[in-house]
Design brief:
There is one protein chain. With about 325 residues, the chain is α/β, with parallel strands linked by helices. The protein has eleven helices and twelve strands. It has helices at about 1-10, 15-25, 30-45, 55-65, 110-120, 140-145, 145-155, 165-170, 255-270, 285-290, 300-325; strands at about 75-80, 85, 95, 100-105, 130-135, 155-160, 190-195, 200, 205-210, 220-230, 230-235, 275. Strand 1 and strand 2 (about 85) form a beta hairpin. Bound molecules: zinc ion. The site of zinc ion has 6 residues, from helix 6.
């Protein structure tokens, strides 16, 4: 048996002699099974990348519930490759790392910022290496913590043209469907305005900002690629997009806004997207997905998300029309 293994090792160093060796020494049906195995395992790797760090993903699902507190600490975990979840149990924050520095999307609430910074450190990364701060939508639960994180990292803060004045004043825009509903939050300094549709790069990291107004005027979604060895996946951090507003606000009274809203949803549905993340983890069923055999990997996730948001918006517009007829 030992000799057979030794011969196999010698033969494996030369591919042709290895094949001849296999044909000569293994029954033909065993060889067929071996080839079928190679083909199947090759296909599996191509369509469903290996999900790394399942223990830390499971730990998050153990500590956090589906709809959890915004400021409840949750353990960070690797999403895929160089992308990490560093948010709290109820609010997402995503860290994408590189040798040229890191990018952090969203800063949580004011209290959440400390949890995010701790999570980054506990993964072994330094806040000093965070170079870019990005945002989803300009509401305090996702951007109030950016001021603190900017202070801790000296990172450059990028904002969409509509979100920039909100981040710098700490007050929601008067055109925001939720204007008047939120408290003021700590102001941060915007270093650069994002050109929507134009990629943002840091070393070998590239991010595509997509305008997805709806929840707010300056809301952005982000697309990038993360790799593990040679397996790469496209990740999309899609904004909240739910049609929530102050009682006095009617979406139907703002046709241009609704048009832009629909356009953003359509663009999102067309995106290549293999892992979907959202500012509120529950919106993309993150906990449920983490516990499923496929994990966060789902090629239809953006399409399905866009469909469900479209239905919610349609329902809201019908509701507004019906209520209007009643009054
Ligand atoms: Zn929110």
């Amino acid at each position: 048996m030992l000799i057979l293994i030794q011969r196999l090792i010698v033969k494996m160093t030369n591919p042709i002699s290895f094949i001849v060796f296999m044909i000569n020494s293994v029954k033909i049906n065993t060889l067929m099974a071996f080839l079928v195995f190679i083909v199947i395992s090759g296909c599996t790797v191509k369509t469903v990348p290996q999900i790394m760090d399942r223990p830390s993903q499971n730990k998050w699902a153990e500590v956090c519930s589906t709809w959890d507190d915004w400021d409840k600490p949750g353990p960070p975990f690797r999403i895929y490759g160089n992308s990490y979840y560093v948010g709290t149990c109820g609010i997402s924050a995503i860290l994408i790392t590189s040798n040229d520095g890191h990018v952090l999307i969203d800063g949580g609430t004011e209290a959440g910022a400390d949890i995010i910074a701790e999570n980054i450190k506990s993964l072994g990364f330094s806040m000093n290496d965070v170079r870019f701060l990005l945002h989803s939508h300009e509401h305090f639960d996702h951007v109030a913590g950016l001021a603190k994180l900017q202070e801790l990292s000296s990172a450059k803060l990028f904002a969409s043209p509509e979100a920039a004045p909100v981040l710098q004043s700490g007050i929601a825009s008067k055109h925001d469907p939720q204007a008047g509903m939120h408290e003021e939050f700590p102001t941060s300094k915007v270093d650069e305005i994002i050109n929507v549709g134009q990629s943002l790069t840091l070393g070998n990291l590239t991010f595509l900002p997509i305008a997805t107004p709806g929840h707010t005027l300056g809301a952005l979604s982000w697309q990038w690629q993360s790799c593990e060895n040679t397996e790469c996946v496209i990740i999309v951090y899609a904004d909240s997009l739910s049609p929530i507003s102050h009682d006095s606000y009617l979406f139907s009274e703002h046709p241009q806004y609704v048009d832009d809203y629909k356009k953003g949803i359509r663009n999102l549905s067309l995106l290549e997207c293999e892992i979907l993340l959202t500012p509120h983890p529950s919106a993309s069923k993150m906990r449920k997905n983490l516990l499923s055999p496929e994990g966060l990997f789902d090629k239809n996730s953006c399409k399905n998300y866009a469909e469900s948001i479209t239905k919610r918006l349609q329902k809201r517009l019908i509701q507004e029309k019906t209520n209007d007829q009643i009054h």
